[in-house]
Amino acid sequence: MAIVPALPRKLHGPSIWALYVIGLCPAVWSFYLGASGGLGINPVKEFEHLLGLWALRFIILTLAVTPLRDLLGINWIRYRRALGLLAFYYVLMHFSVWMLLDLGMDLNAVFADILKRPYITIGMVCLAALVPLAVTSNNYFIRRLGKLWIDMHHLIYPIALGGALHYFLAVKSVTTEPFIHIAAIALLLAYRPLRKPFLRWKKARKTVDSPQPAHR
């Protein structure tokens, strides 16, 4: 039994659009802070960092949808696509700020950084892997690709791992923040191989606990 009441069907569509609006608010607020001098002495770097951080958070939320349903009965499956796309948008904004504002669209510097700095190399690989997931995140490709679509979207797991590693290598000082995000991703990835045994156990327990019909 779900512990969170389900929304009426007529609110499903509006609630998804509301999620997009709410999900983009951190980017708008961070931009405002940067433009108004609220991001410190290096607003571009801080803006870039915040966008990357929110990208990682939305990846975590995307990965959390299935465990939340399995373990707590919170069914947010209809929001998973929006959460995944928000993660992609933030990764794209993170990359754009780095390339356009941080490096001034200097392509030589861009390619040099990609080749020289491992965390940027990892970030670029993750961005490249996210592109086909974002492009195919619609009903047309779900029908068109079938099982291949499911296999393709399993890339989110190595992408999440790469994103966590990118974040860890990029931070200049050791704080608890990256470890919290990395721990969250590690737990969510660890749940994946345990899911099928857990669901079998849950089903068996439900069968045992369900009342048997009385025999006459």
Task: Write a structural description.
This protein is an all-alpha fold. The protein has one domain. The chain contains nine helices and no strands. It has helices at 12-35, 43-72, 80-102, 107-116, 118-135, 139-145, 147-153, 156-170, 176-209. One of its GO terms (cellular component) is plasma membrane.
What characteristics describe this protein?
216 residues, single chain
The counted number of beta strands is 0
How much β-strand is present in the residues? under 5%
Could you state the order of secondary-structure elements as H and E? Answer: HHHHHHHHH
Radius of gyration: 20 Å
Distance N terminus to C terminus? 31 Å
Mean of residue pLDDT values:
88
Low-confidence stretches: none
Question: What's the topology here?
Answer:
Blueprint lengths: L11 H24 L7 H30 L7 H23 L4 H10 L1 H18 L3 H7 L1 H7 L2 H15 L5 H34 L7
Q: How would you sum up this structure in a few lines?
A:
The protein has 216 residues and is an all-alpha fold.
